[in-house]
Amino acid sequence: MTGPSGTRRLSAGVEMQVTGAASVRVWAPSRSRVEFTIDGGAGYPLARDEEGFFAGTIRDVSAGTRYWFTLDGALRRPDPASRFQPDGPHGPSEIVDPLTFRWTDADWTGVVPTGQVLYEMHVGTFTPEGTWRAAMAELPALADLGVTVLEMMPVADFAGQFGWGYDGVNLYAPTRLYGSPDDLRAFVDRAHALGVGVILDVVYNHLGPDGNSLADFSTDYFTDRYTNDWGQAINFEGPQPARAFFVENAGYWIREFHFDGLRLDATQDIKDASSEHVVVAMARSARAAAGDRRTYIIAENEPQDTRLVRDPEGGGFGLDALWNDDYHHCTVVALTGRREAYYTDYKGSVQELISCAKYGYLYQGQWYGWQKQRRGTSSLDLPPHTFIAYMENHDQVANSAFGRRLHQLSSPARYRALAALTLLGPATPMLFQGQEFSSTAPFLYFADHREELRTPIRKGRREFLQQFASLSDPDVLPALPSPVDRATFERCKLDLSERQSHPAAYAMHRDLLDIRRKTPAISHPTKVDGAVIAAEALVLRYFCAQGDCLLVVNLGCDLLLTPAPEPLLAPPAGSRWSPCWSSETVRYGGQGTAPLHEDEEWHIPGEAAVLFSPIPRRTPADGD
Question: Rounded CA gap, 331 and 356, in Å?
C-alpha cells in the first residue's frame, strides 16, 4: 500500500494510494509491451523503465477490481504480486487495500525464541469447514490448552481445490480456499488477543507445477544451475528484481498480516552463492517489517546445518530455531520398533533421547548410513530451545502407508511416557493438529491437480513410499489412498468433538503444558543434564535456583531403582524427591503409580514417566 508521499511498500504489484488511484508496477524484462487490463474491461498501457519494470497510475479502479496483465498484446496473466486470486491461479487478480482492516493488536509485542509451545496447523483440515473463520472459533481452546505459537502450513494460493500448500504459485495471495485476505487478518488479530502468536510456513525453494506464470514475465526467476527435489530451482543469483520478489515476500506476510515470524521450508534447496545468502536477506526483511515487535524464524533443514541459527557476523544466517528430525526419528523407533528407510540410523534408545535433550541433533557430522555420507554440523554449544522437538508433524505422519497417528502405532503407556518427555523436555515442543486429543483422523498426502498431473502424482507418491520395505507387501499397495482423490483430503479433517470423547489424552496434554508453563525448573532451567539409569530408563535433571526437578522415563518393564549410583538422582540438600506427576495417572488411562517411600528403593512403573519435585526431608520430630 502506498503512503501519503506515494512511496510503495513493495517493488511490484498494485497498491491503492490515498488519492484513490492505483499504483501499478510489474517486472517483465522479457516483454516489450505490458498493459494493465481490467477483467472484462479496458486496458491501460504501462511505461517501461531501464530495469524492465512497467508502471503506471490507474484512476478507474478500486479495491475489489479484478485485473490482468496483458503481455505483448497476446498473453493475459495474473499479477505475480497479486494480493488475492478469487478464482485461483488461472483467474484474474483482485485489488486489495490492506489498510481498510482495523487491527486491535497494537499492544502485541511479538514472539521471543524462548518459552514457546508450537502447534502445527493445516487450515483446510483443522475444521470441517476448512476456513480461517472456522479455525478462529477454535483459538480459545488452543490458548486454553497451553499453545503459545501457531505454525500455519503454507497459504500462498495454489491450483486445485485442496492441497498441503507447498505447491504455492501466487506467493503474495492467501489462498481463496480458506477465505478472504481479511479473514486471515482477523484470524491473526484474534490469536493475538488471546495471547497466541502465529507464524507462517513459507516455501522459497520451488513453485508448484500448475499456475506458475513467473517465467512469462521473466525467465530470470529460475535457473538450471542447481537441481531441486521438487522442480526448477529459483534464481537468487540473477537480476536484483528477481531476488527481491522473494525477499520482499518474507516481509510482506509480517507487515500486512501481522504474522509473528516464518518457518522456512526445506532450506537446503534454497541455493544461493551470492555474497549474502538470500536466507539472511529474507530474515532481515521479515524483522524490518515487524518494527518493534519480535519475530520468530524457524528453518527446516534436512542436512542439519546449524549455520542457520548462528550470528551473521560469524558467518551464520541469524534465524532462531531448527526443526529436529533426529528427535522425531529416534522417538518413532522407540515407540514402534520399526527401523525402515530413514529410521535405519536410529535405535530409539534412552541414550539417544538424552542426547537430543542435551545437544539437539544426534548427527553432527558423523557417518549416516541411510544417505551414505556424513550428516549434520555441530550443535553442542546451542541452547536447547533452539531445537523444535515433535513426535508428529505433517510430513512424518503422512510418510507412511495410511497416515496413522503415533498413538495408534504404539502401546498407550509408552506413548504417554514419550509425550511427557517431549512436552517437558528442554527443547521447544511442537504438537501437530489433533495430537492433543489422540485424533483418529489420519493425515495423508493430498494434492488436487489437473488431469495430466494426476498420474505422475500417484506414481511419485508410490515411488517415494517404496523406501519403506514393508510397503512392498502386496496387501498394502492396493490399499494405499490416492493423493488426488477428494475423499483422501476429507478423511484428514479433524473431528474436534474428540476433545470431549477422548478426555484422557486431552487432559494429559493440557496438564503437561500447564506444568511446563508454571514450573520454573522446566520453563527456565539454568542447566539440564541426563543419564541412563537402566537399559530402557533415563533421568533428566532440571537445575534451577528456585528448585530442581527430576523426570524419570522408563520405557521398559517395572523398574526397582536399586542400586542407584547416579548423582543426578540425589535430592537437593535437606530435601527429598516427591512425585508430582505421573503418566500412569488413572484419568490419563494409566494403571496408577506406586507410592514412593523416602528410605526405600524406588518403584517406577513400566512404560511410564514420573516427574519429581523436592520437598523438605522429614525428621524424626515430624512423626509418621
Answer: 10
- Dihedral of alpha carbons 35, 36, 37, 42, sign: negative
Assess whether 300 carries a catalytic annotation. yes
Q: What is the DSSP string of 560-571?
A: EE-S---GGGSP
> What are the residue boundaries of the structural domains of the chain, listed by start?
13-99, 113-200+391-518, 520-622
Contacts of 107 (CB under 8 A, 6+ apart): none
Indicate whether 55 pLDDT > 70: yes
Residues 81, 85, 91, 96, CA torsion sign: negative
- pLDDT of the residue at 6: 52
Catalytic residue among 167, 248, 300, 536: 300
Fold classification of 113-200+391-518 is TIM Barrel (3.20.20)
pLDDT at position 623, please? 52
d(CA 561, CA 604): 7
C-alpha cell at 549: 526437578
- Say if residue 322's pLDDT is above 70: yes
d(CA 440, CA 435): 9
Please give the grid coordinates belonging to residue 66. Answer: 479484478
Residue pLDDT, tens place only, 410-441: 999 999 999 999 999 999 999 999 999 999 99
Q: Could you check whether 13-99 and 520-622 share the same CATH topology?
A: yes
CA torsion sign, 513 to 519 to 525 to 529?
negative
Grade residue 5 by pLDDT with cuts at 50, 70 and 90: very low
Catalytic residue among 256, 265, 326, 448: 265
Amino acid at 165: G
| Average pLDDT rounded to a whole number, residues 183-193 | 98
Q: Nearest to residue 188, comparing CAs of 266, 265, 293, 85?
A: 293
265 included as an active-site residue = yes
